[in-house]
Design a protein that fits this description.
Radius of gyration of chain B: 14 Å
Oligomer: heterodimer
Structural class of chain B: mainly beta
Order of helices and strands of chain B: EEEEEEEEEEEE
Number of strands of chain A: 11
Number of strands of chain B: 12
Strand content of chain A: over 45%
Distance between the termini of chain B: 41 Å
Order of helices and strands of chain A: EEEEEEEEEEE
Number of helices of chain A: 0
Largest sheet of chain B: 6 strands, mixed
Chain lengths: ~110, ~120
C-alpha cells in the first residue's frame, strides 16, 4: 500500500547526542515536510523540500538538519544544538504544485531526551 | 507572515449534536487555501475538508462543513450529528506561498474535541 513510513516510532536519546529520524514515502510525491508537535503548540514547520537535492528552512530549523538525496526519503537529524528536542515529529508529503495543498502524514516519531 | 488562531483549546459535545470549531487567520494574500485536519488518539493526521479562497461556496464533506468568511478572515468547522469517532484534535491550517521554493501549511494550535455518549 502507498504511504509514508516513519521510524522509529519511539526513540530515547541522551543529551549531547545526535539522532536521525527516518521518513520514507512511496507515493511518488515531490514535496516532503517535517513538522514538530508540542502540547498546546500545534504543528510547527522545521524543514521542507520540493525537489531532490533542495530543501528550505521552516519556522524552527535551528538545531535540525535534513537531506534529500532521493525522492522517496527525507531524513531529519536532531542535533545536540537543539535545546529542547523532546517532542513528537511528523513527516508529510504532497504532490508538487500550487493547488496541491493536501498533506499526507506519517504516523510520527516520539523523541525523548533523557 | 500568516498566522492561524484557534481560540478554543477544548470543546465537548454530546453524540448526535452539532458543534462548531472556530478559526481565524491573518494574511495579506488574496488567493490561498484553508484546511481542517483531524488528529485522533492514534496521532495519524487526516484531512477533513479543504476550501479555496476564490470560491464563495462553502465546502462540505458529508457531516463536515465550513463557514468561510473571507472578509472577516474566519474559517469555522461545523460537525453535524457528532459521533464518538469524531473525538480528536482538530487543526485549522493555511496554505502559504513560500515563493519560488514551494508551499507549506501553517497550522493553528488545535482544538481538542471530546464527543460524549
Amino acid at each position: 500500500d502507498g504511504g509514508i513510513t516513519q521510524s522509529p516510532k519511539y526513540l530515547f536519546r541522551k543529551e549531547g547526542q545526535n539522532v536521525t529520524l527516518s521518513c520514507e514515502q512511496n507515493l511518488n510525491h515531490d514535496a516532503m515536510y517535517w513538522y514538530r508537535q508540542d502540547p498546546g503548540q500545534g504543528l510547527r514547520l522545521i524543514y521542507y523540500s520540493q525537489i531532490v537535492n533542495d530543501f528550505q528552512k521552516g519556522d524552527i530549523a535551528e538545531g535540525y538538519s535534513v537531506s534529500r538525496e532521493k525522492k522517496e526519503s527525507f531524513p531529519l537529524t536532531v542535533t545536540s544544538a537543539q535545546k529542547n528536542p523532546t517532542a513528537f515529529y511528523l513527516c508529510a508529503s504532497s504532490p508538487r504544485g500550487f493547488f496541491s495543498g493536501e498533506l499526507f502524514f506519517g504516523e510520527g516519531s516520539r523523541l525523548t531526551v533523557l | 507572515a500568516q498566522t492561524v488562531t484557534q481560540s478554543q483549546p477544548e470543546m465537548s459535545v454530546q453524540e448526535a449534536e452539532t458543534v462548531t470549531l472556530s478559526c481565524t487567520y491573518d494574511t495579506s494574500e488574496s488567493n490561498y487555501y484553508l484546511f481542517w485536519y483531524k488528529q485522533p488518539p492514534s496521532r495519524q493526521m487526516i484531512l477533513v475538508i479543504r476550501q479555496e479562497a476564490y470560491k464563495q461556496q462553502n465546502a462540505t464533506e458529508n457531516r463536515f462543513s465550513v463557514n468561510f468568511q473571507k472578509a472577516a478572515k474566519s474559517f469555522s468547522l461545523k460537525i453535524s450529528d457528532s459521533q464518538l469517532g469524531d473525538t480528536a484534535m482538530y487543526f485549522c491550517a493555511f496554505m502559504k506561498s513560500s515563493g519560488n521554493s514551494g508551499y507549506a501549511l501553517n497550522f493553528g494550535k488545535g482544538t481538542s474535541l471530546l464527543v460524549t455518549p
